[in-house]
Design brief:
Protein name: Tryptophan 7-halogenase
Bound molecules: flavin-adenine dinucleotide
InterPro entries: FAD/NAD-bd_sf, Flavin-dep_Halogenase_NPB, Flavin_halogenase, Trp_halogen
Structural class: alpha+beta
Number of helices: 15
GO molecular function, one term: monooxygenase activity
Organism: Halioxenophilus aromaticivorans
Strand content: 15-25%
Keywords: FAD, Flavoprotein, Nucleotide-binding
Distance between the termini: 49 Å
Number of strands: 23
């Protein structure tokens, strides 16, 4: 093992760059000499404001104090996503982060609920999930009674990068302001040797992390790693983002409302609301998308709508030679389930576990690449489900999605659910059974038959069990304060911008 610190350069200072800088400095700082280079001239993508609950465990690992982070980023709590108009126009469901009912080793809770419904009792599946009920009632607490609540955050993306930058610089990350104009390769090994910056500056390192966003300057451009295009499954290639003044106290969930040629997000923060529309240029031009977006805004606009173009997919490999790409430099899946920041954090954990301390290592890179692909494909399938499982036939956009061929992995999953309601967690365990169930049933897919477990108990006993579970949720819900009250006492931001 070498004695000198390994020199690491992080190219790019968006959410990916600063999360990388902070995590590496915090956990491997005594072994690494870390420099981050970013260009104010170029700026960041400036979106990415909804998260999933895994962010909490990442913050705990990195000793990021929740209240400090929430105050600094004007954050609110997020208990799930409300999907409007997805299965059919006028329909609505919530994909919440909570567990639904109680599972047994034999089968999942929804099987008991399906059996009850077939016998005329059991009510709505929603009544068995505390997080879902709390979202709809705009309530929040870290715990309800003794039950921990599963939550994530909405945050101001620019403020988050600044927060991480301050923390990173405080623990020794060196920041260089400058534009990368060339990536120099070692002619004999093909490794990256240095980054050439404007004003004739040059930065050398042992290992490079490409966080340059969609440009993918190091991995894509310099090392020529191809991009695998998934837009035949996820056709959207454009988004427009706009910020508005809030017109109501922040709700503890994201809204994803489908339109005839795309969908619109609404993300409530403490000081403003983030909005945007995601669409495909194949079915809708920028002007029409902007019209739809602005027609559905509530509150005065604080910014002009900004168009962002992208291609859904991922690089063939994320790590080549002495360079790994993290964040948008490695790929993009549209923000329907708010998974990009999560994918940054899992990539960082993977990188820290596989870091090539003894120099460049192909087997370590290979393992990293296999795990990355596994993870991205699982998330991709879950997102495709939202588009494929629709009865909408009111536009070319929905007709395309409803009738398109889907990956075999997803087809297999849908077939098993249709057959007998069988669901299992995805390969990397990100989306749990309850997530799949909420989206499948929320969009109108119900099993044709069911597991026998729900019929083992006599109906009266099953009904009594279900009533107990519902009462447990209702009692816990009754103890929770409103989301706004909770924020006010827990993490109110001092600066209003
Ligand atoms: C429309 C949209 C909505 C999204 N919503 C969500 C969401 O709700 N939740 C979520 O988790 N994610 C979301 N994302 C993804 C999220 O925004 C990104 O994953 C996250 O911001 C990380 O971006 P990044 O740091 O990889 O890239 P960027 O923010 O683009 O940063 C790139 C950095 O590289 C620097 N750079 C580039 N070229 C050079 C150069 N030549 N020299 C020097 N520096 C350079 C730039 O200055 C910048 O600092 C969304 C993305 C889009 C497009």
């Amino acid at each position: 093992m070498q004695q000198n610190k390994t020199k690491v350069i992080i190219a790019g200072g968006g959410t990916a760059g600063w999360l990388t800088a902070y995590a590496l400095a915090k956990r491997l700082g005594s072994l690494l000499d870390i420099t981050l280079v970013e260009s104010d001239q170029i700026g960041t993508v400036g979106v990415g404001e909804a998260t999933i609950p895994t962010m909490r465990s990442f913050h705990q690992l990195m000793e990021i104090d929740e209240r400090e982070f929430m105050r600094a980023t004007q954050a609110t709590f997020k208990l799930g996503i409300e999907f409007n108009n997805w299965g059919g126009v006028g329909e609505s469901y919530v994909h919440s982060f909570g567990a639904i009912g109680q599972t047994t080793w034999l089968t999942e809770f929804h099987q008991y609920w399906l059996a009850a419904n077939a016998q005329g009792f059991g009510g709505s599946l929603e009544d068995y999930c505390l997080e879902l009920k709390a979202a709809k009632a705009s309530k929040f607490a870290l715990k309800a009674g003794k039950t921990p609540v599963n939550y994530a955050f909405h945050l101001d993306a620019t403020a988050y990068a600044q927060f991480l930058r301050q923390k990173s610089e405080a623990i020794g990350v060196n920041r260089v302001e400058g534009k990368i104009v060339e990536t120099k390769l070692n002619p004999s090994t093909g490794d990256i040797q240095s980054l050439q910056l404007d004003k004739n500056r040059e930065l050398n390192a042992d290992f490079f992390i490409d966080c340059t966003g969609f440009r993918s300057l190091l991995l894509g451009e310099a090392l020529n790693v191809e991009y695998e295009n998934w837009s035949h499954w996820l056709a959207s290639d454009s988004a427009q983002a706009v910020q508005t003044k809030s017109t109501e106290p922040p709700i503890p969930y994201t809204k994803a409302t489908a339109h005839s040629a795309g969908w619109q997000w609404k993300i409530p923060l403490q000081h403003r609301t983030g909005n945007g529309i995601v669409y495909s240029s194949q079915f809708c031009d920028d002007a029409a998308a902007q019209k739809t977006l602005t027609e559905h805004l509530s509150g005065d606009t604080l910014t002009q709508p900004r168009v962002i173009k992208f291609t859904t997919g991922m690089r063939d490999i994320a790590w080549k030679k002495n360079c790994v790409a993290i964040g948008l430099a490695n790929g993009f899946l549209e923000p329907l389930e708010s998974t990009s920041i999560h994918l940054i954090t899992t990539a960082l954990i993977r990188l820290m576990r596989l870091f090539p301390f003894a120099g460049n290592s192909a087997p370590l890179a290979d393992r990293f690449n296999r795990e990355t692909r596994f993870e991205w494909e699982a998330v991709r399938d879950f997102i495709i489900l939202h588009y494929k499982q629709t009865r909408r036939d009111d536009s070319d956009f929905w007709n395309y999605y409803r009738t398109m061929a889907i990956p075999e992995s997803l087809a297999h999953r849908l077939e098993l659910f249709k057959e007998q309601g069988y669901v299992w967690p995805d390969a990397v365990n990100l989306f749990r059974v309850d997530s799949w169930i909420q989206v499948m049933m929320g969009q109108g897919l119900f099993p044709e038959s069911r597991h026998g477990a729900g019929h083992i108990l006599p109906p009266q006993a099953l009904q009594a069990q279900l009533e107990k579970l519902k009462a447990f949720v209702a009692n816990n819900l009754a103890q929770m304060p409103s989301h706004s009250e909770f924020i006010a006492q827990y993490c109110a931001a001092t600066e209003q911008s």
